[in-house]
Amino acid sequence: MSMGFKTLWGLGLGVAAAGVLALWCASCSNESNANFSGGASPTPGVSRSKGSDKAGAGAFESDFEKIRIEAESAEKIEGEIMRIVDDPRTSGGKCLEIPDKSGTPETGKFARALYRFKIAKPGTYYAWARRWWVDQCGDTFAIRFDKVGRPHNEAIIFGADDSSKPPRWGWTPVRENGRPRPFAFTAGEHLMEILNTEDGPKLDFVLLTDDASYVPTDSEEMSGPR
Questions:
Q1: In terms of C-beta density within 10 A (0-12 exposed, 13-18 middle, 19 or more buried), how is residue 38 classed?
Q2: CB atoms < 10 A from the CB of 114, how many?
Q3: Of the candidates 111, 106, 108, 160, which has an alpha carbon nearest to the alpha carbon of residue 134?
Q4: Which CATH number fits domain 16-223: 2.130.10.10, 3.90.226.10, 2.60.120.260, 3.90.660.10?
Q5: 119 φ, ψ to 5°?
Q6: pLDDT of amino acid 138
Q7: Residue 75 contacts by C-beta under 8 Å, 6 or more apart in sequence?
Q8: Can you give the pTM of this predicted structure?
Q9: Which of 70-79, 84-93, 149-158, 167-176 has the lowest average pLDDT?
């Protein structure tokens, strides 16, 4: 397993090719789902409001939005170390993978996947990802929206939540400073990028919702096409 790294993501202070990135093992973070929501801990799979989700999975108020972006639906993948592979444990039978020992930005290996999606209801959204981790130095990706062309390090690392557990599929929120990271979207088309940080992890899909209290469960895995 190649060692992972952490950089001053989002500050745009590093240029990896020039060797000025600040490196660290991304999963040394002590983030946990207990830090996700202010106040009472949310109940997995249930929002604080009752109702049914338009897609038929989870409990959502009818005016809450849920947008599912399958990892295999990438419009473009750049970088030889990032690929789509078959995995029967995923929602669509396929996932995005960075093979173990394939390299990291620290070793000069860069990769990204580009996705287009549409927002019908403008507002503040929160992102969750269903991903597979190998170990504590093979559990993270980075994500950003509408920043195509920016330096690789201008993104938010996600995935270092409970990777001390045995390798498995699980949910992780996108956080910043230990809190859920809000993303403001206007109505219309947007671009999402998934970027590599470590080698070994897999990504099933990203879930966007404007319900800040919602915590997905494995039931979400089965709600997509198979």
A1: exposed
A2: 14
A3: 160
A4: 2.60.120.260
A5: -110, 120
A6: 74
A7: 114, 115, 116
A8: 0.72
A9: 167-176
